[in-house]
Predict the structure of LLM class flavin-dependent oxidoreductase.
Amino acid sequence: MSHMRTCAVSVLETAPVWQGSSPTAALRGALELARRVEALGYLRYWVAEHHNAPFIASCAPPVLAGQIAGVTSTIRVGSGGVMLPNHAPLVVAEQFGTLEALNPGRVDLGIGRSPGTDLTTARALSRISSPPGSDVFPGMVAELVGYFERSGDAGTAETVVAVPAQENRPQIWLLGSSAHSARLAGSLGLPFAFAHHVRPQNAVSAMAAYREAFRPSAWSDRPYAMVAASVIAADSDDHAEWLAGPVGVIIHESLEGRRNRPNLTPSEAAVYRYSEAERARVRKGLSDHLIGGPATIRGRVAELLRATGADELMAITLIQDLSDRVRSYEILADAVACADPESLSGSAGVR
């Protein structure tokens, strides 16, 4: 008889803003959701970085992660991710070194290459234009990692030390949605988080590229990969599809280039008018999301984990009502089961 284990399962939070609500309510709701998923046994609770988006309130990962750490006690907290082109690596090292010092053994620093916004806002953030495909990014990653590896000859003119980062190393992850970012993560010996919710078509090839490129490091002695996917689960397929109505509108308005308002509620999305061609395009876009009742979710989760070989599943769940959202995470936690007898804590091999 095979021994079953529960694979690590985690949450990606964007603090979504809904019609009739506010960014303040979204941020406070993120704290309450963190308490609830911690009680369900979730391993991590990561917060995203987006800017100038009226439908997302998660703009400051280190601030929000610190608040989440303060209202929880066991769940790992961190960024999914800090968009490194927007920030000086020294500042990021100081911020996350501080978080780790105050919450030892609980902090993750996920870093990404995208600006997480439009280029005009990216320029306002960094005062320079550094496109996502720039060769600057690997150097920024190396600089950031170096601050945590440096024992620090503070006071010399040649050495800059991120003081809180000394002896306070979070788990550093590289985020991405392509084989290019996967190979960079592997070559640096870092754990890798793949954004299936952004580029599902790249998932299998990126995971393979990561494992092929992986070299053991001071950060991880073997490859460890997470897949982050959009999940909306409910007690029936029909109810899950109704809850996913706002996601359909998001897909449509994003494709039309006019997503510039808070997310619609499910009731509003249910009466949204599409042409037949638009409805077909939305259905196609939703097909890569994991949407359904318990049996459907079990099948979709098993399929995704089998295809990617992921060690961990992270879910982004855009559901307006807190109780419906918590129920979705309950169903997902039950669905994430693998046949591998080796027990994983979510950080096996990751230092």
In short: The chain has one domain: 5-244+289-338. The first strand starts at residue 5 and ends at 6. The mean pLDDT is 90.
